[in-house]
Amino acid sequence: MVSLWSVGAYRSLCSAFYAYQVYQMVMNRFGISFDVEVKKRGYLPYGRGSVVVRSNPIQHLHNVDMIDPGFVTKITGRAFVAGGKPVKIAQRMAKQAQILLKEKFSDIPITIDSVRESDSRSEGMGQGILIVAETSTSCVFSGSGLWKKGVETETVVEVAMKELMNNINSGGCVDNWMQDQIIIPMALARGNSVVRTGPLTLKTKAALRAIKHLTKVRFKIIKEKPPLETNLIKCKGLGYTNLYLD
């Protein structure tokens, strides 16, 4: 069990909702399972969010083969407000997202929840939305929008929608927030792994450089043919084993 404190919700990467809706689903493919309990949600600039993460130990990580993004079969989401903002703003964001999503995905289930965080379980004032799309091949893609001073509520949803569609249409099997997060599990896993991604992010390139310096694992990046700017990330993992488990 690990207790974590955050500096605040920053886009989707540090969101607890993202952790168990996207990150957890991808990590499950490596054999990793965990639970996230949110003690308190924190928002910039104050932060002070708190979560407890519980994970079961495993002997080794599985290799993965993620090259087929599939097609979208389900969309869920969470529009939220906290602090001095009324719940009707979250409801407005959820309704707008539902309308925009139905225009693009008319024949799949779409559920966008709207919530106001209780004052006792949140710190600071915040507003945002995270939308998650699941596909026929168990890939997950996200799009997020976070309010800041001077930004209209409608713009927050539009930002999330644009990011979601960019991730879905990238041709990859992970979204831009998850892309760099798969590098370490791939390096530690047993056997050969391959993941198709969209354009490499700066964080992914940094993660690849770090692994090169810290381990003997060598990644191979294969740039695929247009029109999509996709890449195949390949490696043979270390096969790191937990010696404390039989």
Automatic annotation (TrEMBL):
GO terms for biological process: RNA processing. It holds the Pfam family RTC. GO terms for cellular component: nucleus. It comes from the Eukaryota. SUPFAM superfamilies: EPT/RTPC-like (SSF55205), RNA 3'-terminal phosphate cyclase, RPTC, insert domain (SSF52913). One of its GO terms (molecular function) is RNA-3'-phosphate cyclase activity. This is RNA 3'-terminal phosphate cyclase. It comes from Paramuricea clavata. The lineage of its organism: Eukaryota, Metazoa, Cnidaria, Anthozoa, Octocorallia.
